[in-house]
Write a structure and sequence with these properties.
By secondary structure, the protein is mainly α. It is about 55% helix and about 5% strand. It is built from 7 helices and 3 strands, in the order ααβαββαααα. The chain has a 3-stranded mixed sheet, covered by helices on one side. The termini are far apart.
């Protein structure tokens, strides 16, 4: 759908990074930026296709402007080759930043309210029943003279976990 929209408006070259949205390593984006010349125009289907954060998006569009390259977003009706397009782009960015700040504020208020009610987030402290059983076995093996490495290998847990289990069981480690 995105490629069809770009072809419809006459785009000639396409750069696609096929990876997780969280990835910061985007070789095709870097290739496109390296090949830009004054007078070119970068066209995206939607703003979030270009930058992974508002800061990154603003940096990219400003670097395009510095190179004499226009930027357009089809779905957002933004064209930075015009003064009104630049204004709309910056308003969109400001609104997105404002929305993120509101979400963060609401999240922090919710966490504070939960804390007042005695609720805490995160993983419960202590060991699961299965881990407690494994800790008992690790303690028995250790007291029989087995080495930490051998216990680790036998129980298929890391040596650090063996140490933590022994500490949990109150075993003095030599």
């Amino acid at each position: 759908m995105q490629l069809n929209a770009l072809k419809t408006v006459g785009c000639e070259r396409f750069f696609q990074d096929k990876m997780s949205g969280a990835s910061t390593d985007r070789p095709q984006l870097q290739l496109m930026v390296d090949q830009l010349r004054p007078g070119d125009e970068v066209v995206v289907w939607k703003l979030d296709r270009l930058g992974r954060s508002i800061t990154h998006l603003i940096e990219l569009v400003n670097s395009f402007s510095d190179k004499g390259v226009a930027f357009s977003s089809l779905s957002d009706n933004i064209d930075t080759s015009t003064p009104s397009g630049k204004l709309i782009f910056h308003i969109f960015c400001s609104l997105a930043e404002y929305e993120r700040a509101l979400i963060r504020e609401r999240t922090m208020a919710g966490l504070a309210a939960a804390k007042l009610r005695g609720k805490t987030g995160g993983k419960p402290k202590g060991l699961t029943e299965e881990a407690k059983n494994t800790a008992r076995v690790a303690e028995s093996l250790y007291k029989e003279g087995y080495s930490i490495k051998l216990i680790s290998d036998q129980l298929k847990i890391t040596r650090m976990t063996v140490y933590n289990y022994l500490k949990f069981r109150g075993v003095n480690i030599k």
